[in-house]
Amino acid sequence: MKGPLLSGPARDLILNHLKATLNPALKDDDIIRQDGLSLGQVDQSNFFISEVFQTLKCPACYVLIGDMSFDYGTQPNYIEGHHDLRTIMTAEDMGGDRLQKKVESYARVLFNTLDQQDLLTPDGRLKVKLISSAIEYGDVIMRKDTDDRKIYRRDCIYKWKVFHVENQLIP
């Protein structure tokens, strides 16, 4: 492939890393909550690269890439750059307090899974380094499942800086 790989392959590296490491991290003894609150495993079909506006079974994980900036530096055969990334974990629970604890725990898992990680494509052409930048929480959304049950949904929005180094020499 000629030309820069840009954001898509970097996003795919991160998404594949999450698919391989997120669920095992949710089982880690350091993450298991002592208050009985269960963090659900993310089904492999609930990892997305764009926001899904349909009803889905939570938890779900989204990896969304933002704007990218280039820095050609001093080595002409390499493109360096950085872009913003958001990893969003969507969770549901029957109560607002329980839900807040749940999304805080998901934020901790995301931090432990991605912060300061170096990821490399199999061909060695693209390397990304992930640096944490901010945690935000989306608005609480409520829906009725039946006449007497209320289900609350909230997003944990984890923001990252992705430092991108790409070798322009095609093997």
How would you sum up this structure, described in words?
With 171 residues, the chain is of the alpha+beta class. It has a single domain, classed as 2-Layer Sandwich (STM4215-like). Helix content is 23%, strand content 39%. The chain contains two helices and seven strands. Strands 1, 2, 3, 4, 5, 6 and 7 form a seven-stranded mixed sheet that branches. Strand 6 (141-144) and strand 7 (150-167) form a beta hairpin. Helix 1 (7-26) crosses helix 2. It is elongated, with a radius of gyration of 18 Å. The termini are close together.
Summarize, please:
This protein is of the alpha+beta class and 171 residues long. It has helices at 7-26, 96-114; strands at 47-48, 60-71, 78-93, 118-120, 126-137, 141-144, 150-167.
The domain tally reads 1
End-to-end Cα distance, whole Å, is 10 Å
Q: DSSP helix count?
A: 2
Helix percentage range = 10-25%
Poorly predicted regions:
none
Task: Using the coordinates above, name the CATH class.
Answer: Alpha Beta
Average pLDDT figure: 80
User: Which class best fits the helix and strand makeup?
Assistant: alpha+beta
Judging by the overall fold, what is the CATH architecture? 2-Layer Sandwich
Number of strands: 7
Topology at a glance:
Elements: H1 7-26, E1 47-48, E2 60-71, E3 78-93, H2 96-114, E4 118-120, E5 126-137, E6 141-144, E7 150-167
Parallel strand pairs: 1-2
Antiparallel strand pairs: 2-3, 3-7, 4-5, 5-7, 6-7
Helix pairs in contact: 1-2
